[in-house]
Amino acid sequence: MQFGSWEIGRALGIPIRVHVSWFLVFFLVTSSLASGYLPANLPGLSEERYWAMGAVAALLLFGSVLLHELGHAYVALTYRIAISQITLFIFGGVAQMRAEPPHPRAEFLIAIAGPAVSVVLGVVCLGAVELAGMAGEAAGWRGLLVLGSLVGFVNLQLGLFNLIPGFPLDGGRVLRAGLWAWGKDFYRATVQASWGGLVFGVLFGLAGVIVVIAALSGDLPGSMASDGSWIILVATFLFAAALASRRQARLRQSLAAVPVHELMVRTVVAIPPDCTVADAVNQFFVPHGYGGFPVVANGELVGLVTVMDVQAVPQTLWAWKQIGQIMRPASPGLRIEPNVPVLEAMQRMSQEGLDRLVVVQEGQVTGLVTHSAIVHYLQLHKV
């Protein structure tokens, strides 16, 4: 989602980004409201007024989607799961978690938080509109009441739609939590829950096709052809996301059973910390072509230096700077033991922002595990 997206602010310390596709759906929603819903419910206004109200309504709807995602994020943060960003895009929004939930209960609570926020928003908006109507509807408030009803109904629909038990929808994640608690296998539960996403994707797609055909044949109003097209688009997205989740779960399930020592690089070339950057480039980086090297002193790991660390140093200082001054110091996050599953190594790399970890056993450097080695292993074994 990083490509073609822009940060518009932060909430709960989380970057909020808008994908380029959001602008398309924002225009379509605004246009649909300005040309259909608003004139039907607020007759007699100018075209400019309809478009202005449509734009406000579209912003409120996307604000509701953002609150939905913040519901997920807030609960995830209580479990110390970092959220890298929340991105609004053509199909709504997504909160990107840096780690999986620690147990089924956490998965359930994180998943249910979004729909709960949407349902509460829907009930509050519709309740406020009902109370305003009982108090006597003023002509000047008519527009606000129409917008309130729209936001209320859409939030209820958003909450209920997301409870459909098809992964990766929130209802599918609730289903995964139950299957995880029952079978004690997170990745198997993910594969099973993704079947729901595939099934509902097919069903929605067929429903959309039926609506389009009926609209084109005259059995339904012609304007509903666009609704059918949107249903097909959403169904395609759900099916593709479920299929991708299923494949990723199978991949992670495979890597969870493979220990690091089976694919680590055993021929380790280490750089001493007192080596200058210039010598490291000429004697290590260029001849070996590796993207990074462990830094070892007196047989002990003291750090890791990568191409990016070298690039951060002005070339005029290469002859004066030592590797020990620019390396990443050794830490528990930088090293890993040979019997740890490869999946944990991948998660550690992601958390540390590294493409390699140093394999250490009984204090001695025995190998390196890298992204490229993992990819090579997967290609060879056709995982």
Output the keywords.
383 residues; alpha+beta; CBS-domain; 2 domains; four-stranded mixed β-sheet; membrane; metalloprotease
- List the secondary-structure elements in sequence, H or E: EEHHEEHHHHHHEEHHEEHEEH
Shape: elongated
**Radius of gyration, CA atoms, in whole angstroms:** 27 Å
* Domain module count: 2
- Mean pLDDT, as a whole number? 85
The neighbouring-strand order within the major sheet is: 1-2-3-4
Number of helices: 12
What's the total count of β strands?
A: 10
What would you call the structural class? alpha+beta
Describe what this molecule looks like in 3D.
It holds the Pfam family Peptidase_M50. InterPro entries: CBS_dom (IPR000644), CBS_dom_sf (IPR046342), Peptidase_M50 (IPR008915), UCP006404_Pept_M50_CBS (IPR016483). Keywords: CBS domain, Cell membrane, Hydrolase, Membrane, Metal-binding, Metalloprotease, Protease, Repeat, Transmembrane, Transmembrane helix, Zinc. Its main location: membrane. Belongs to the peptidase M50B family. There is one protein chain. This protein has 383 residues and is an alpha+beta fold. It folds into 2 domains: 5-255, no CATH class; 260-381, CBS-domain (Roll), CATH 3.10.580. Helix content is 59%, strand content 15%. It is built from 12 helices and 10 strands. It has helices at 20-41, 47-78, 104-134, 142-161, 170-183, 186-217, 224-255, 277-288, 307-311, 323-326, 342-352, 371-381; strands at residues 5-11, 14-19, 83-89, 92-97, 292-297, 300-306, 328-329, 335-336, 356-361, 364-370. The strands form 3 sheets. It has a 4-stranded mixed β-sheet. It is elongated. The relative contact order is 0.07. The mean pLDDT is 85.
